[in-house]
Amino acid sequence: MQEEAKNFSSIKEQSIIENSSISVSVHRDKSLGPILSNIPKQLRVHKKLWLRFTLKTKISPPFDVKWIVENDGDEAKAIPDLGHETWDYNCNNQINFHWERAAYKGVHKLKAEIYKNNIKVESQNFEVRIIK
């Protein structure tokens, strides 16, 4: 009986998860307001600008967010800087932010994975093409 209740709880959480999304705004500097906002996926951005990714979810806090960056392109490969991961633990807000600098030309991906009780329950992706 407890197992059925646990499965139902998991299904209920999964139905809420489908409403998670990532949006992005472009900034000249982290301290200044956006120069572009509500950008669609497959965004094109010039190098040296800042990107603020906003993850919105209806998953009830607390949860952890793992931000995964995958860099692709000649400049990233030459450094090499093909990506990195950052964790935000014990998020108590259903809106979370992550900053990245547009440093290398090429196609770059950002993935946000949401973990609840150490179990991945959601994954959202955003792709950015960095140009000169």
Short description:
The protein has 132 residues and is an alpha+beta fold.
Properties at a glance:
single chain; 132 residues; alpha+beta; five-stranded mixed β-sheet; three-stranded antiparallel β-sheet; 8 strands; 16% helix; 51% strand; disordered N terminus
List the helices and strands and how they pair.
Blueprint: H1 2-17, E1 21-27, E2 43-46, E3 50-56, E4 63-71, H2 74-78, E5 83-91, E6 95-101, E7 106-116, E8 119-131
Parallel strand pairs: 2-8
Antiparallel strand pairs: 1-3, 3-6, 4-5, 4-7, 7-8
Structure write-up:
With 132 residues, this protein is α+β, with helices and mostly antiparallel strands. 16% of the residues lie in helices and 51% in strands. It contains two helices and eight strands; from the N terminus they run H-E-E-E-E-H-E-E-E-E. The strands form two sheets. Strands 2-8-7-4-5 form a five-stranded mixed beta sheet. A hairpin with a 2-residue loop joins strand 7 (106-116) and strand 8 (119-131). The model is unreliable at 1-17 (pLDDT under 50).
